Amino acid sequence: SRYLEVRSSQNLRPLTLSQIKWKLGVLKESFGEMRCHEVTTAMLETLFESRNWKRSTIEGVIAKLGPFFNWCIRESHSAHNPLKDILLPKGDDLSPSIFKTEQVSQLMKRAAAADPDMIPYFALGLFAGVRPMEIERLSWNNILNGFIEITADKAKTRQRRLISIADNLQQWLNLGGELPVTNKRKRIAKLISRIGLNWKPDIMRHSFASYHLALHMSPDKTAFELGHRDTKMLFRHYRELVSTEEAQTYWKIRP
What we know:
mainly alpha
């Protein structure tokens, strides 16, 4: 509870704070009668295994609980962070879900015809790779001459970045629309149901990364546009998902 008080005073976003509370709740449920220094690495590994969590889920839990154990060390409640020595299960080497070029073309045409106010949302996700939660925080004031400004208060990483506006993206943005978008989920569901698209989390960002990397053949450039600190994820997930020819077609999708 004291740690939560500290985190609550650090101007965290509500979603981040709720994720921390949930993961601390898992700890409390499993080890609530124990002192912090008594929780071992083996105990945590057994907990993760008992819940049948995949590697990506465990990595997310570690990202939120690691700082808690570091805080315990700072406050002299413990001398070691048991999460530092966790042996992670082997990850499933699955390719991320992306849209085919014809699906992107269908989606944009459908939005233009049935719900044109949604165009900026789809265009920024598909042709700039902006994270969905970041798009929801943007306004037209963030669309500059040739760049999209993701300010620190709107960025997932709390670091400002500028994203280049491709020619076809500029043409879509010229059509106007809502920023920020309202009632997003229902409107997306209605649009994709009519054209039979299978919508998955971050599919627009994954599509952007795949086609941008295939077009430019520069992991550094793609990582910069995405706001990644390095190119490791690009090599692991996005290499060879699409051809150069498909990428060229993707970036020609225009109003």
